[in-house]
């Protein structure tokens, strides 16, 4: 899955300093609510399909059956490329050597169209840690010096398969890639070491973005050269 969305606003990085904000939107899609609208996205696991999508629960982030559920409403905010953020000394330089021009996102929680100041993030940097919605500064962007790396995710397009791709958590991945992982159908989400095999990244670590209101959702494809222009590429 990929947030290759049409840019309406963009959080970029210029030179060694972080620049002003950017928001992404796209065509109408599947699991987000009508009140959140066509700019909202949610994610489906390759392991469990479109019948299980990312949602904020009482005890952390989990998978949930899609529907008119405001807890499934998120917006993908592009922060910059890995190289840009590393150049601005916001993320470890080692990540730039590995991921270069891959795009870094924050996934902002927007239940029923109400933009919050929380984003999807890892609860700690240890493998197996839960994923929660936690403070990240939106709708008013945080100063670059306090931007929480636990809420930054690298969409690794080069490891994509079809409409799916892994998401690496920046804070937890200074030495090894820890990625968003589905534990089970309707189960909690965690971060865990990227699992690679002959078929690529493990299906429980591959995610498809579903864009737009419930009942109209479409998957946004990983880059093929035919998608709308992406301003950071």
Describe this structure in a few short sentences:
This protein has 233 residues and is mainly β.
CATH topology: Trefoil (Acidic Fibroblast Growth Factor, subunit A)
End-to-end C-alpha gap:
17 Å
Question: Proportion of β residues?
Answer: 25-35%
Uncertain spans: 1-30, 222-233
Summarize the helix and strand pattern as letters: EEEEEEEEHHEEEEEEEEEEEE
- Specify the biggest β-sheet: 6 strands, antiparallel
- Mean of pLDDT: 77
Oligomeric composition of the shown chains:
single chain
CATH class reads Mainly Beta
* Helix content class: under 10%
Which class do the helix and strand fractions yield? mainly beta
Number of helices: 2
- Cα shape: globular
Question: Total number of β-strand segments?
Answer: 20
Describe this structure in words.
The protein has 233 residues and is mainly beta. The protein has one domain: Trefoil (Acidic Fibroblast Growth Factor, subunit A) (Trefoil), CATH 2.80.10.50. 6% of the residues lie in helices and 35% in strands. The protein is built from two helices and 20 strands. Strands 5, 6, 7, 13, 19 and 20 form a six-stranded antiparallel sheet that branches. It has a four-stranded antiparallel sheet with strand order 8-9-12-14. A hairpin with a 3-residue loop joins strand 5 and strand 6. The chain is globular and about 40 Å long.
């Amino acid at each position: 899955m990929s947030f290759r969305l049409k840019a309406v606003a963009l959080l970029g990085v210029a030179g060694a300093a972080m620049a002003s904000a950017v928001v992404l939107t796209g065509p109408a899609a599947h699991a987000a609510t009508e009140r959140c609208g066509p700019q909202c996205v949610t994610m489906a696991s390759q392991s469990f399909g479109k019948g299980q999508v990312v949602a904020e629960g009482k005890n952390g982030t989990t998978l949930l059956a899609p529907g008119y559920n405001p807890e499934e409403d998120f917006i993908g905010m592009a922060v910059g490329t890995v190289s840009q953020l590393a150049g601005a000394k916001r993320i470890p330089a080692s990540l730039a050597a590995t991921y270069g021009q891959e795009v870094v996102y924050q996934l902002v929680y927007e239940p029923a169209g109400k933009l919050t100041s929380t984003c999807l993030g890892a609860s700690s940097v240890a493998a197996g840690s839960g994923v929660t919605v936690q403070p990240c500064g939106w709708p008013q962007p945080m100063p670059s010096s306090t931007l929480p790396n636990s809420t930054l995710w690298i969409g690794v397009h080069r490891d994509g398969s079809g409409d799916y791709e892994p998401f690496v958590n920046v804070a937890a991945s200074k030495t090894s890639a820890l990625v968003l992982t589905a534990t089970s159908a309707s189960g909690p989400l965690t971060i865990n070491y990227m699992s690679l095999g002959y078929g690529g990244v493990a299906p429980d670590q591959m995610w498809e973005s579903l864009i737009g209101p419930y009942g109209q959702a479409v998957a946004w494809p990983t880059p093929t050269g035919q998608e709308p222009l992406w301003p950071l590429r």
